[in-house]
Amino acid sequence: MSDQLPAGGAHVPLLEVDHVVVQFGGVTAVNEAAFVAEAGQVTGLIGPNGAGKTTCFNVISGLQKPTRGKVRFRGRNVTGAPVHRRSKKGMGRTFQRLEAFGSLTVRDNVRVAHDIHRGLAGLLRPGAKDIDALLDRVGIAEYADERADSIPTGTARLLELARCLAGDPKLLLLDEPSSGLDESETDDFGDLLRDLAAEGRGILMVEHDMDLVMGVCDTIHVLDFGSVIASGTPADIRRDPAVQRAYLGYSDEVPASELVSSAAGAVEETRTDLQPVGVAADVTTVIPVIPAAPAGPAERQEPLR
Ligand SMILES: Nc1ncnc2c1ncn2[C@@H]1O[C@H](COP(=O)(O)OP(=O)(O)OP(=O)(O)O)[C@@H](O)[C@H]1O
């Protein structure tokens, strides 16, 4: 494995996914995907179901070997590096499924994650970090003494984040971090992401809550059928015709007036993980709508009409 930093003073992205291809038999799950995630920024990776987001995350974190292409982290080629080496270099990940130890308390789950990350030092001098301060930071201090298998799903997601932060990662890979959070918890979570980025960490997030994505991300990459079809700011992504086609099945050529709010009538949800806020007037299929204007976490926008 080449492990060289680029020569000269060229800008080096925190994470670089370089034309990655992943094939499962005849299925091309990721198709020449190329994008970066920068330090100090929240980057969104979005796309319809089956677009290849989780497979990309698996390649980045080392769980899936790519058929072709490279992953560079902090300027070094880590394509062949095992998960634990990437973690040591500063890559932390949360999963869609919850990974905490159910029989341990919330506090002990974070303590164990911290000690494991420190390796031998963690075994010799466990619990050196202020775990309670970390629980407080992610907003779950009141659950510190509860067993992890007894807490609500949204809280368990925040526990996953606390476990990830216990390793003090430079890059956080967050897979569906807001699922299970209510609206106010999601707002707080968005603020926390901005704080973490302000500390200089990079955050790459797969997320279906478009309000959150549009509200907190500096940059968004859109995957469709394994390829990046658009990259840009939330404003760029919102008006990109290729994104509108991939998500909405229409582009600007189709008048937005043909869309009506889901509040207008009964709807049938077909893609439950996307925001079911718009519906074509003559069908009962819910269409996910990207919020129409920039939104802060505390400032939700009305859907595009
Ligand atoms: N281990 C596997 N074997 C075969 N096909 C797979 C495997 N993992 C994923 N796929 C296929 O690869 C494609 C991309 O899947 P992936 O889970 O990465 O998409 P996704 O964008 O994360 O989807 P979702 O939003 O539903 O989680 C899909 O067609 C999926 O069925």
From TrEMBL:
One Pfam family cited in the UniProt record for this chain: BCA_ABC_TP_C
User: Keyword annotations for this protein?
Assistant: ATP-binding, Nucleotide-binding, Transport
**SUPFAM superfamilies linked to this entry:** P-loop containing nucleoside triphosphate hydrolases
Species assigned in the record = Nocardioides marmotae
Record PROSITE patterns: ABC_TRANSPORTER_2
Record-given protein name: ATP-binding cassette domain-containing protein
Question: InterPro entries under this entry?
Answer: AAA+_ATPase, ABC_AA/LPS_Transport, ABC_transporter-like_ATP-bd, BCA_ABC_TP_C, P-loop_NTPase
Q: Which SMART domains match?
A: AAA
Recorded GO molecular functions are: ATP binding; ATP hydrolysis activity
- Origin: domain of life: Bacteria
Q: Can you quote a single GO CC term?
A: plasma membrane
